[in-house]
Amino acid sequence: MSAPTAPASAPVTRPAASLWKVAAARSVLETKQFFREKGQVIFTFAMPLLMLTLLASIFKQRIGDSGVDAQQIYVTGMLGVGVMSTSFQSMVLQVVGERANGTLKRLRLTPLPKTAYFAGKIAVVLVSSLGQAAVLLGLGTAFFGLHLPTDPARWATFAWVYLLGIVSCTLLGLAYSSVVSPQSAGAMVFLPVIVLQFISGVFVPFNDLPGPLRTVSSFFPMKWICQGMRSVFLPDTFQPYEPGHSWGHGQTALALGAFAVVGLIVCLKTFRWKTRNDG
Q: Which residues form the signal peptide (predicted)?
């Protein structure tokens, strides 16, 4: 008579609650590490504030009969720049640095789930971008004539534009980090971001730009984020100065959603935990 066989053990899976705890712990760690880097914190928060202060103090002309002057446009534009800088720009530089110094390679060998690592990065973006947006809005309302909306629908628009902008730019930053080398990361990030600021309605009213530049900017998220922010904080009298003479919420949501999907697909296919020299 043969000996009874032991029952097969069930596969061990990580409980969802445990995964959330790991992701939350990683988010706290990433956030603490971000704020310990004083230089990065100062640059992230100070650059948009400095640009807003300089531009809004120098240029004050009224835009047609819209009741809006250049100062309010600069505030909304810098909100878009802030989203881009805290998500895309910071994400590329952080991930490229961590890949170069071996941090990603070491993390890949630990039990840390991939989702927990990405959750930590998203948490840093959310905390830093919300803080930056609060400071920009405070500066705009205190010194540059910006009026915060009282209509809840406008704040709902701010929420979805902000979230779609953060998600799309973060995913695009993760994807872009795989094609940037540590030696050229600064130039390959700052140059396109600066160019996009000039053609996305940050410094110049969007409809005043040449047609070809308007077309090029529509293929990047900054244009749509800035347009969405103008629809939240500028009066409806400014709509005639927008593309199509309207805020274009449907097109903005569609464009930012498409950027998020493209960023996710490219990120999943190209993200690397090791440098090319590591094989």
A: none
